[in-house]
Amino acid sequence: MSTGQRLSSMAGLLWHSLSPDEVVARLGTDPLGGLTPAEAQRRLVQHGRNELQEQPRAGFLRRLLEQFKNMVVLLLIGASAVSALLGEWYEAGAIILIVSLNAVLGVVQEGRAEQALAALKKMSAPEARVFRGGRFVQVPEAEVVPGDVVLLEAGNYIPADMRLLESANLQIDEASFTGESVPVSKNADSHVAEDAPLGDRRTIAYKGTLVVYGRGRGLAVATGMATEIGQIARLIESIQEEETPLQRRLDELGRWLAYGALAICGLVFLVIFARAASAIAHEHGIAPGAILRMLGNPAIAAPVRQAGLDAFLTAVALAIAAVPEGLPAIVTINLALGMREMVTRHALIRRLPAVETLGSASVIACDKTGTLTQNEMTATRLYVPDLVVEVTGRGYTPSGSFHKNGVRAEPQDVPGLLRLLRGALLCSDARLEVEPRPGEHSYRIVGDPTEGALVVAAAKANLQREDVEALYPRRDEIPFDATRKRMSTLHHDPQNGDAILFVKGAPDLILDLCSHSYRGDEVEPLRTDTRAHIASVNRDMARQALRVLAVAERRFEEPPDTLDAGRHETNLVFIGLIGMIDPARPEVAPAIERARRAGIKTVMVTGDYPDTARAIAAEIGLASENGRVVSGTELDQWGDDELAEAVDEVAVFARVSPSHKLRIVDTFRRRDDVIAMTGDGVNDAPALKRASIGVAMGITGTDVSKETADMVLMDDNYASIVNAVEQGRIIYDNIRKFVYFLLSCNLAEIMVIGLATLAGHPSPLSAIQLLWLNLLTDGAPALALGVEKGDPDVMQRPPRAPDEPIIDRVMQMGIIVQTVFITGVTLVGFFSGFRRGGLVEGRSVAFVVLSFSELLRAYTTRSERFSIFQLGPFSNRYMQYAVLASIVLLLAVIYIPFLNPIFDTLPLAWLDWAEIVPLMLVPSVAAEITKFVLRRSTLALQPVRKTGG
Fold first, then answer.
1. Per-residue pLDDT tens digits for 456-486
2. Where are the domains of the chain?
């Protein structure tokens, strides 16, 4: 069998269960010299580049056309075409302009989001060191092929899925892949069962993970889409994108407007045409039913055609009145403004409709590591014989204090504390580095995060590595080994010239190697009761999900020539225990409580161990200390019905796989929950795409998760998620407000024209006046409504039900009331002006009354339940700008002579204004009275979905 045939037949091989020799044989490579350059090139052609295949991004034209997939937009385009055919070029041009503006805004905003995302993306492993032709070479990660022998060192990203050939204290951070918060020890010589889960395959290093300690050599067994990351990427592509709740509601509203407008226009056309036809028949002395049979008579056909055209023009004017031309653009603009506001809250929205979706979230399913926690291992509890010391301060910032018996104490005043911290510091390789920033300092750990916790704890006691190592120089070491579970370093002791061996590792193993212990500064034999007490303290720490290390020492008068674990790691003197945990973010607990008050259930879904997950959940108030934690193993044994029952009560799922996360997301969605799935790892990506809205972490998140998510958190802060939920609710409320405003205005316009024409009177408003009202008088205040700061109780209301329409019962009542009053005052103004000065004056008065009524109506629409005086009449400065601009433009149309014929207006006298002012105030007063009544009625109680806490 040729090499090519051999490679192509290896799909699905369980590489982790094969020995290094078997893997080398199957891949046909030299474990020492690697592939020849020619063979590497041939395999690159055969297998393709080592890259994840992305679905091609939609081009500009396709994205532009996507903006027109909306019923209201299509209806507007149709109205524009009809206006153009009838020679109404002003109307046609204005409508096309607003539709084009809407489309361009949508494309530009989504393009900006993609550019911002590209700026956030981090290169995971741009180059790799491989053996080619017997020597090391640097090659682009994309050119790594199956059979390449790759050198792995601390700080390297793994460029492909690899079967390890050699490993020396190799530890790999797989948090982004399996969810484990601590590095995983790898061993090339381990025996791994065929059915071992991903997290337990110690012989495999996965593409995209990070080497944090040690070194090794690996043989690339899978590249590109054949890697485990590639399998997840393929799973992501198989998940279909769904419309957001906002898209569904706006489409529903668009269909309602379209059908309603067509029905009303058709009815008005038939009534007007029938009345005109009847008058023509009466004039010619024939029966109305016979007029259609006499269309061959020119004397009858001409007036009938004219009557039909007049009826059609009136119907078109009604269509313009019925369809809020500015609605699509205002929705787009307000979503764009919401996107900008989200950025100030550290959330990057990749798709405009997703701005609103978080606002309807009823469940937030989030990972633990880096999302609820700081992803910075921290020492929180120390034990020296007979004394437990608590350590304050979180993360890698070296500030904190030490407390014994609840009282703050200086480290030097606690017997044995400095000895414990100094031994832990010297018996580690991690380093604390400072990254200066303007006005602050940021700290990071280079090396193993667990050792980093030891370094930071020592720094809190003013023990700096450089100073301590200068006094206690390292002479020799036995590196950490996964089998021994400990590390030893030999140092020179400046106090007496002895050699001192520090050993740190798993407490049970270290304790077995100890024969003595410290009591204060004295060394005494390790008694049985003391040994039992230390073991008990270790168990207590472990039960609280602390990762515990023990530190011991041994002194030599003459330093050993070469350290030997079997001879020198014995007869140790026990120094103490150090308990560490990846701490919760301090802002998470209040954020979860805030979400709970808003009726949003938060669920932890993590790949970490149950005890660790339970401890963090208890700390942040997500669950009690004895709360139930469901493991992935339990999930495998449950059916869908059992899981559906459990999600009401369970808030923590631990040791889960990507498939488990998908099941959890699907379970919530079947219950009609709107679920926001947060995550940062590759393992989160399928669930991010399946969720109602996926939220990826911008700092620690992988490229796969960012590309998949609808939203990227730029500060990885859970509090930012809750802030985004609040902003999403505000945005949706604002969309409701301007829909409420626009529809009440548009229905009033329909009624004004419809009632007048059905009663046999001329239309009180011309088509160009209606278009002016819809685009400027209505449009500018609607935009201002989009930047409202939200009602005071926005985060004290339960989430909306997924099937809740935009136009609910409260809005229906408000629309009816406003339609009646705005219609009434406009018709009063029209007939009053018509009697005084004819059709043009009547239309001018009606135009002004309707315009001012709608402008004042905008103020009352700022809240559906709170009075304008509770909000503050002038608290939205943008409303003042919008109303002032609309008034100035309206007066220009009335009083600038050359605009009068275009807009069918004439200058109004003082007598007209004396009538207009009281009329225009009536609808606003009615709106405030309506809110007062509704607040005290059952209509104000909206149907909401019951959600778990």
1. 999 999 999 999 999 999 999 888 776 778 8
2. 3-54+124-237, 347-372+586-724, 379-581, 808-940
